[in-house]
Amino acid sequence: MDLKYVGKDDSVFNTQDKASGGALYACDLHLPRMLHMKLILSPVPHGRVMEMDVSRAQTVPGVVKILDWRNTPQVKYNRGRVRASEDVPDQETLFTDHVRFVGDRIGAVLAETKEAAELAASFITLEIEEYPSYLTPQQTLAGTQVPIHETDEIIRPDVIAFGDYEADPGEELSQLTGSSRTTHVAMENHCAVADYHAGSGEMEVWTGTQSVFGARSAIATIFGMDMHKIRVHKTPMGGSFGCKQEMILEPLAAAGSVATGRPVKLWLNRAEVMACTVLRHPVGTFVRGKFNADRKLTGVHLDILLDAGAYQTVSPDYCLSMAKKINWTYDMDSASVNSVSVCTNTPVSGSYRGWGGPELCFAMENFVNMAAKSYGEDPVAFRKKSILPPWSVTKVGDFNLGSLPLAEVMDRGAKLFGWEEKKARPKQDGRYLRGIGMAISTHTSGYFPRRPDWGTIVIKMEEDGSVSVNCNIHDHGCGSVLAFQKIVGEVLSLDPARVAVPEGDTLYNAIDNGCYTSRSVFVLGRSVMETAEVLKGQLLDYAQEIWSCGRDILYCEDEAVRRTDDPSAALRYTDIAYYAADHGKGALFAAHTYWPESNPGPASADFAEVEVDTYTGHCRLTDFACVHDIGKAINPEVCRSQIGSAVQSGAGMVFCEEVRLDPKTGAILNDSLERYHVMRAAELPDVKVEFLEDGTADGPFGAKSIGEAALVPVMPAVLAALNDALGSSFSSVPVTPEKVLAFLEKEAGR
Amino acid sequence: MIIKFVLNGELVSPDLDPSRRLIDILRENFFLTGAKEGCGEGECGSCTVLMDGLPVHSCLVLAGQLEGHEVLTVEGLVQNGELDLLQNAFVENNAVHCGFCTPGMIMSAKGLLMKNQDPSEAEIREALSGNICRCSDYRQIVMAVKDAAKRLREVSL
User: Fold this and answer.
1) Chain B hits for A649, Cβ within 8 Å
2) pLDDT level of residue A14 (50, 70, 90 thresholds)
3) Across the interface, do B134 and A187 touch by the CB < 8 Å criterion?
4) Do A693 and A580 reside in the same domain of the chain?
């Protein structure tokens, strides 16, 4: 198919507002009489607040109200719940006197200025009876003298298994992998603005969220409000990577507004984002795997230990999400995955780009790289014996994984990277050691068949021929709005600049699952595409009526319906729109629902080259290549950025990204960007990217997912390169310069 | 105290607490919300503006330091509603994603191009290393700055 907009790089019409400084994020909003909220956070890991002295705080000019657990609803909720019907553990309240980690919310100050709110909060003194604290899963598993929670402190999700692993006679290898807490470092710190009108009982909220319906549901549940009176707007979002998908700030800002009858802004600083929103899970995975005489992988057994932090929130589902992906990449006769999600008196773990996918891939690919090394085989050739063939049906969940070109992404990736040439090079270059490594993965393109999924869309054409799309889209900043503009533009042969795609708004959008699990383009994008086709059908109907002609001679091009038998004839869309209105035909308006019936796993292969400075222990990513089976890249250059950002954070997790906790209190030791290092412009290579575009998938124009999938194989590929350079067998990250130097010293001492 | 300085080409004289941060002055006194706060300690670069032509973190500059100086923000680059050459280069090279780092990134790049109209890739990456972008590997941003430099050289020829 000859495509005019899809697959082209033009994004100019979509980004000018951001480049001019004019785009308004939640933190840029200012409403008349707006108050500022400052949270009062627990200074201890576990205890009971006996006294909270606010007398001095109340003397600060501008302080309007102080909230705590005594004057706000004590409804228990789960911040990860999108719809009230979801069965997930309820453990959290707006504010609590039973504090469960350093950073748990005790209360909040509301004041006329943020300075006044901050000053007043600093004047509040707390008397806390301290309880014993449990800072590691092992401590909780050994038994809690004072429970962190009365129920669901430890959750063991269903074992996911097929075949009989223990009966497999193959040779067994095993490995323990671990990854640390990390923070997302979305550039925009979390912010929500809530405005409650006591007279009408209406609540309006502005927030950079991944689900306006999730935020509405949480507010409705906690405050017992009717949903139709709560309007949540999704504002432009300065990055999420998962950190803005849970309902954390919206209920708090709403509580402030309900309590004062005034608009309230809650905007966290970087330290607060790290301490009291959500961090990436620390996870330990023990992998056992068996190989037959040909050294093909025949089965695996995984034990996963997830540190949920102080509240379970989404962690049990994380375990299941890891487990259910066990048969998406390798062809095996048996697999079993045991997992446990454990509460500790530490900051809450939760959603991070990939939702268990990167964690499972890290454990499995480290294991496979270790096995290849111990058998003395090339990692690419070694994997080819064990990968699933195209169009495989996974034994967990029983659905087709799509074209799944695992061998092809590896072959093309090896070529793009120069794998064979780099393999032949000497490792040592003066004080530097160089190594290479690779990893493969698949991921999801939506909920099917794990959860019911759909996309309900309304598209209308205005009388000037421009188009407005009503879709529950939440652009994380990665261009999904732009993708939808192009999809509609392509279907209707209309300049995408003339397609409006406003983001999530509970008042107008049909209920939706939210922009999670890489479903935006695959599910909502396809829904938008089909709805645009319905609208196109209406345009053709009217053209047929006006011209009294057959349908088969009509086609759409350049914002007009045209006919093959008369190249000069054209009915511009605006003419048709006026015709329909002026003749009382009704609106040019299409409402449509699409239900996905497939979920192709995009295959990826990542190749990394790492250089280690043996003097300093500093590691540098010197080359990186990725081949990703995207099906169809709607905006190729923006898709490249998805890979680039994944490499930045994935390599960062291997080299440096780690939220370190005080071993005595669980307080974050490095709660600032000065002490939490992310990879900068000068530390990254120009990442080489190639997309496979076979167009076979059910997504719009054949697209599969990329956003989360991009991160999945990065960490194991980079770690393998680091291990290759050093001749080491690190299987836990980050591998900091101190660890590298300690390893080199130990080797030298041998 | 009354502090006189030039903001985006106009002389202004607001009454300010001398310890007030420039970022708050821009965002709250002048409603110029282009400069963004991402860390409050000069690490992320989202609040970068130019002071006398040099990139500074507006979260680290205090009102008392402004007297007699010239401050240029991302909004000040827009002339008669038209983006300037550098802003257009960001837009046209797909260098704008979530957009939160963009104003600061553009101002750091502006500072670089004001003193070096032919920077190498390494110089660009070095100049932008005080600005964090999490949506990319900086590839498109580097391309945008290179492209802007080329256009600037063509204009000045």
Assistant:
1) 134
2) confident
3) yes
4) no
